[in-house]
Amino acid sequence: MFESLNNLGQLDGILLINKKHLIHTVHQSTELDYYQYLVNYHHKQSTFNPRNLKIDYPQSELKSAIKKQELVGIDNYAFDNTNIGVVTATFEDYFLLQNLNDYSLSDSIQKIHFDDLIAVKLTSNTQVLLTNYLNR
Fold it and tell me: What does pTM read for this prediction?
């Protein structure tokens, strides 16, 4: 599980990462030092988590974290970018995702296998706002 930061170094979301898709990791760099500085700064200013996002997801099974009727961001090796949508059903090996296009739910539903996932954004500032927008 990773904390996703926005360009200001504030907490933007929580990601569960499928380790088998990682190619390279970096443990020391000036960019990491900079982001650590930003994280420390925002912790001191109490601005790290401006929307009080839930960060205590269990690290157990990815399958149990993806729930029906929740808005999630999906990164899959077959996609060229992140897809945001609502989970319409979950099964043993896959789930169904109804994509969000132009700020409304599309008619198309994608079948996504758990083994193909690179990352799943369970919550973020954007997702909180989109969920509120869709439920208004």
Answer: 0.67
Q: What sign does the dihedral 79-93-61-50 (CA atoms) show?
A: positive
Query: What is d(CA 68, CA 64) in angstroms, rounded to the nearest whole number?
Result: 10
The residue ranges of DSSP E strands in 18-91, in sequence order, are 71-76, 83-90
Tell me how far CA of residue 68 lies from CA of 91, 95, 133, in angstroms.
Answer: 10, 9, 18
- pLDDT at 33 > cutoff 80: yes
- Residues 119, 17: contact at Cβ < 8 Å? yes
pLDDT in tens, 48-71: 887 777 666 554 567 788 889 999
**Under DSSP, is residue 55 helix (H, G, I), strand (E, B) or coil?**
coil
Say how far apart CA 32 and CA 52 lie, in whole Å: 23
A 10 A CB-CB count for 129 gives 11
How far lies 25's CA from each of 21, 120, 127, in Å? 11, 18, 27
